[in-house]
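Entry type: protein chain
Record version: 2
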Amino acid sequence: MNTRQQLKEHTEQAKEAVISDDAIGAYRLAEELSEYVKKKGLKRSDQEVYKRYLGLIAKLKWIALSILPREEVLAHFESSFQDALNIPYFNLKDKLREVMIEVVLLEERDKYKKEIKGIVDRNRAMLTKGKAGEGKNGTVENWIKTYISDIGLKKADSIKFENFFTSNKYANSLPAPEKSKLKDFFFFYEYLKTSSLTPEGLEERPVFEVDGQVKVMEDGKLEPVKLTKLQQKIARIVDETLKSEEQEKQIEKQEKGMTEAEKAEARKKRQQEEKIRAKVLNLQKMLENYPKGSLEHKVVEEEIKKLKIGS
């Protein structure tokens, strides 16, 4: 197999790693391709093929960004930012988030993001074909200058952010795909300005239970977690198990110092309470079958009230 045939095969492998967002697979393939390029001496023998391989390796390293050492990440932002912008549907913000999660100290994450922001601020990679201003082509550097002149240096609130893409004549005149790409870039840029010490900038996504609903902290906001039916079932089982363990501990505390007769009476009472709770749950499910205000709905509602009062 000659080098051009091999390039075709390697291109397909790289495409698969990029689409699947397989960081480990991408890293291994990037190492393999780097070794292949050296072994074949492509830098001297075939400049065109050599440059194509460099492009593949650069894209693979963007997918594997969280595995790379800090110095290499910074160098990659410096030299290969265009490759990141050329990967379809590549989420720079989420990818950098993966990198930051590997950094233990939050203060160190802020320093790291500041270094990256400095590189991005002066980057001349082409972000859009459309102009970024009067006589300014659509480079990253030029778009940032235009953005800052409209928004300012501080972190933009959501209203200011959205307004930029409609009120700025250069941003607003972009075709829809380019405008979407520009917006994604500035989501990433705003993230670089956000401290990891704040709820909005924290890279981890802590999960909470609020009023019986599982929610995740995303960019400082609690958002509901959309679970599959199987995940919901598992969550209920875990929740019930934890509640059951907690109840058992409470019972042990309550029964300390009780006589056997008193313990038996307490157990009997608990069993009765459990039966009433089960009946109430069944009746509450029945309510869903009848329209609100109907006679059947009122009868079932009344029965639930009686059971709750009686307990």
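Comment: The beta strands are 207-210, 213-218, 221-224.
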